[in-house]
Automatic annotation (TrEMBL):
Membrane-spanning ranges: 37-56, 68-92, 98-119
Superkingdom to which the source organism belongs: Bacteria
Organism ancestry: Bacteria, Pseudomonadati, Pseudomonadota, Betaproteobacteria, Rhodocyclales
Membrane keyword on record: yes
Keywords from the UniProt entry: Membrane, Transmembrane, Transmembrane helix
Protein name per its UniProtKB record: Cytochrome-c oxidase
Species assigned in the record: Niveibacterium microcysteis
Length: 130
């Protein structure tokens, strides 16, 4: 497994722990206002990051370029900001809406970058382009 893939999987595990802890906390307190955060942390954190690590394992050429590095930093800087902004919004701070909007667009941009990068570098390492 490449270093790039390992970083994604390790962060996925962190998001998994945080998402489950949030779920346990909500259940214990019977306060489910942050349910969307729990869902987003599971899907955009745990599942998406784990799958990204797997995809980069299958496409090592896509993992070994500047686009992959940009994807990593853009996604992993924007996602926590998006989650914090969404939490603030859900807890009654309407001023957080622009934070959610901008960070959501950055997460989306990083996903598009990922897709384009994998498509452009989909051949296995060492394979000749047809």
């Amino acid at each position: 497994m490449t270093r790039q893939a390992q970083r994604w999987v390790l962060l996925a595990l962190l998001y998994f722990v945080v998402a489950v802890a949030l779920g346990v906390g909500m259940a214990a307190s019977h306060d489910f206002r942050l349910r969307p955060i729990h869902v987003h942390l599971n899907l955009l954190g745990w599942v998406s990051l784990a799958l990204t690590g797997w995809v980069y394992t299958q496409f090592p050429r896509a993992a070994a370029n500047r686009a992959a590095t940009l994807h990593f930093w853009l996604y992993n800087l924007a996602l926590p900001v998006m989650m914090a902004g969404l939490a603030a919004l859900l807890l009654g701070t309407p001023a957080a809406e622009p934070v959610v909007a901008v960070s959501s667009v950055l997460v989306f941009a990083s996903v598009v970058l990922f897709a384009v990068n994998v498509i452009r570098h989909r051949l296995p390492a060492g394979a000749a382009a047809a």
